[in-house]
Design a protein that fits this description.
Strand content: 25-35%
Largest sheet: 9 strands, mixed
Order of helices and strands: EHHHHEEEEEEEHEEEEEEEEEE
Number of strands: 18
Distance between the termini: 25 Å
Number of helices: 5
Shape: globular
């Protein structure tokens, strides 16, 4: 299955440029910090999770820029280098190392990193309406200093767009992003796109670059806050969040226990899940959808030609380590292909 969300704008902070994405090779651990990590199973797991999230983000930024030599890619690599220096400054202190790993995962999850508050924190979080067509979400990530990096993804029935850009706060507290690739050949188009914080989220004011950067998609508009965390996931009050590691990578689900509905995503394919709880509460029936895949359907659903059905079944009150059994299909066929997994501790 090749599963990919509709429009997403992802904002990161500018960071110092080739950083290995792989986690530590414990057979070759060197220095107090690496040796301490390899001697501690939870730290080994955190190290692998940070490496996986960084690798995924690096691929996204490289794809959007169209070249691994872009300033945005260099900024992301430099950011990881800076964080590795912070991590290694912990030496063999396991508590310090765990805190650094969790701070880095918080950055990747579009949350404040728990350090000194910065003016950029007004932009940290997840914004937009993932159900619109084309859908627009804006994710804001923190990094060293007050510099920012923006990744924009847009997709609908007849359009797709990905751009990135390094951004900075201007004197009025607005985020100014220099997008790449540029907004097209139109004369006099400044490649700077502005994002402004509002009490309920963020807004992109009308401008030539907002109108031209994504072709048919004019990015100007208001984007409500969805809440800090990974793209598109809002856990309702009194609801339940489920995190799994599955055949198709991580899956995160938000259960609305009052309405008995389910929403979620699987970021390895930029895919989303919508559905309902089964009557006994021990399963989910619904649909998956993503911007691209192996087998396009004859009709569009959720703003894409790439969708299908799914059924997940799991124990009552699942905990980390419990198994989930699932099936999926292309389009409207009965689910028959395996999509199994195991419950995780979450972020």
């Amino acid at each position: 299955m090749t599963l990919r969300p509709a429009v997403a704008v992802l904002v990161l902070l500018l960071w110092p440029a080739a950083v290995p994405a792989a986690s530590i090779d414990c057979a070759r651990a060197a220095g107090p910090s690496e040796k301490a990590i390899c001697a501690d199973r939870p730290l080994v797991r955190l190290d692998a999770e940070v490496a996986r999230e960084f690798s995924r983000l690096l691929e996204d930024v490289s794809e959007a820029a169209g070249t691994a030599a872009s300033p945005a890619v260099a900024a992301l690599r430099d950011s990881q280098r800076a964080w590795l220096r912070q991590r290694d400054a912990c030496g063999a202190d396991a508590g310090c190392l765990a805190r650094e790993y969790r701070r880095r995962l918080a950055v990747f999850a579009r949350k404040p990193d728990g350090g000194v508050p910065l003016s950029v924190d007004a932009y940290v979080g997840q914004f937009g309406d993932p159900d619109a067509d084309p859908a627009v979400t804006i994710g804001v990530m923190r990094g060293p200093g007050n510099d920012l990096l923006a990744l924009v993804e847009a997709a609908g029935d007849d359009t797709a767009c990905r751009i990135v850009g390094i951004g900075r706060l201007d004197g009025q507290g607005r985020l100014t992003v220099m997008v790449e690739p540029g907004p097209g050949p139109g004369p006099g188009i400044d490649p700077a796109m502005t994002i402004e914080a509002t009490p309920s989220g963020v807004t992109i004011p009308p401008s030539a670059v907002a109108a031209a950067a994504c072709g048919r998609v004019d990015l100007a508009g208001d984007y409500p806050r969805q809440g800090a965390g990974r793209p598109g996931l809002v856990v309702p009050d009194g609801g339940l969040r489920l995190d799994l590691i599955t055949d198709f990578g991580p899956v995160t689900l938000a259960l609305d226990l009052e309405r008995r509905t389910v929403a979620g995503f699987y970021p390895d394919y930029r895919g989303r899940i919508v559905g309902a709880l089964t009557e006994d509460g021990r399963g989910i029936t619904g649909e998956w959808f993503q911007p691209a895949g192996d087998g396009p359907c004859a009709t569009a659903r959720h703003g894409t030609m790439h969708w299908g059905r799914l059924v997940f079944t799991y124990p009552d009150r699942p905990v980390a380590g419990d198994r989930m059994t699932g099936r999926w299909s292309y389009c409207d066929a009965a689910p028959s292909r395996p999509w199994n997994g195991q419950f995780d501790d979450g972020p």
